[in-house]
């Protein structure tokens, strides 16, 4: 399987990643093709599609063995489901599937033609195997039922983001960061209201705690480069 | 990339395959897991989902080189589009993506637990790399635009299937075969009304010709085994 491109996002680690693609549309990513696949002709006609599929590698989740069951964080991390009934990264083949919005096809001086996408749930630097157009006729199933994954669909947190901390975040990143925080970036459903969590975002380290149904941002630090 | 399963369908070759998954829901497939992945625990909870994603190998379309553009049959076979703007089998990585309906999770004496699915656009014997649940929240984009692929969306043929030929087809295969024929199984948009085309289906050889907007079945033969 060849890496055809890499995606660049504001999330340097798996912490803070949205639970599914499309949940945080404000989150932008830039798809940069590898030199061998950097041909604008390969994208001819792609601007006619509003959404794309990314098929990518769970590059941080490679294992030599596989387990038939996994514990989805959505179920509190204490209930096992069959791996093929989940989108868990820990599966026989480390393949991820994400639907993203196509925001732009852009020519750059250094990286050739790149794709700007919204709603990606991928870590910065994730290798991409394939890009396909989203075909509403074949892919959109409005009558589909979502199994256990649908149960927590409406779940979100209130976000308390003190103005002096928000001021440390570039303005064009406010919406994405707030949306990321609202979807509860805690690793599983841990419930210690005094515990401070943190994750990297757009060169910042974001720290917060969660009490009842509110996430309080406690610190914004600039990351060392 | 490991083959975790194979799908069994009524289509022994690429001729006659639906152009996309879901277009011919009557077409049933049986997913049989490889012995190393034949663990019913890996499917725990999957029955809660109405639809699944199959990520599979274009096993008949492997090439050592790639072309940045392809000619989609939907556009008459004479217009080139960027490979990433199509679902063409000829792409840098031979990965297929199909949404299918989950019809049943069944225990068999010989093959362990298998999945029965509807609407598969896969050749008999196609290797499967991964199975993921369809998550309506993340995957269903009712506002998506379908680019050039949407233009021919409503296209179908009338089917003239003489009763004496239809009688040679097992009754439970009638609906699927008629639906397959209606979606025009000609290789590209060839328009010679006298030309006879044929493809294998469920152990039969189906022959037909197309005049104006009607497909006439001309022969049904039993295939040698």
From TrEMBL, chains A, B:
Taxonomically, which superkingdom?
Bacteria
- Keywords, A to Z? Methyltransferase, S-adenosyl-L-methionine, Transferase
- A single GO BP annotation from the record? methylation
- Which InterPro entries does its entry note? TrmO-like_N, TrmO_C, UPF0066_cons_site, YaeB-like, YaeB-like_sf, YaeB_N_sf
Domain TsaA-like, residue spans: 1-143
Q: Name one GO molecular function term.
A: methyltransferase activity
Does the UniProt entry include the keyword rRNA-binding? no
PROSITE patterns (UniProt xref): TSAA_1, TSAA_2
PANTHER family given for it? TRNA (ADENINE(37)-N6)-METHYLTRANSFERASE (PTHR12818:SF0)
NCBIfam families, A to Z: tRNA_TsaA (TIGR00104)
Question: What family is this protein classified in?
Answer: Belongs to the tRNA methyltransferase O family.
Protein name stated in the entry: Methyltransferase, YaeB family
Species, as recorded: Ruminococcus albus 8
Read off the lineage from the record: Bacteria, Bacillati, Bacillota, Clostridia, Eubacteriales
């Amino acid at each position: 399987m060849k890496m055809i491109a890499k995606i660049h996002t504001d999330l340097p680690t798996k912490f803070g990643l949205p639970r599914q693609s499309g949940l945080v549309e404000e989150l932008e990513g830039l798809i940069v093709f590898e030199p061998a696949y950097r041909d604008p002709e390969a994208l001819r006609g792609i601007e006619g599609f509003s959404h794309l599929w990314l098929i990518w590698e769970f590059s941080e989740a490679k294992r030599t063995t596989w387990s038939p069951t996994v514990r989805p964080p959505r179920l509190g991390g204490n209930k096992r489901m069959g791996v093929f009934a989940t989108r868990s990264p820990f599966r026989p083949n480390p393949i991820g599937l994400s639907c993203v919005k196509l925001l732009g096809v852009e020519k750059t001086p250094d990286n050739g033609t790149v794709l700007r996408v919204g709603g990606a749930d991928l870590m910065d630097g994730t290798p991409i195997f394939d890009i396909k157009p989203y075909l509403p006729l074949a892919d959109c199933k409005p009558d589909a039922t979502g199994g256990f994954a649908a149960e927590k669909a409406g779940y979100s947190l209130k976000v308390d983001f003190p103005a002096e901390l928000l001021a440390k975040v570039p303005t064009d990143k406010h919406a994405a960061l707030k949306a990321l925080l609202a979807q509860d970036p805690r690793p599983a459903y841990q419930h210690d209201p005094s515990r401070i969590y943190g994750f990297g975002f757009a060169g910042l380290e974001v720290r917060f705690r969660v009490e009842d149904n509110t996430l309080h941002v406690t610190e914004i630090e600039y990351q060392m480069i």
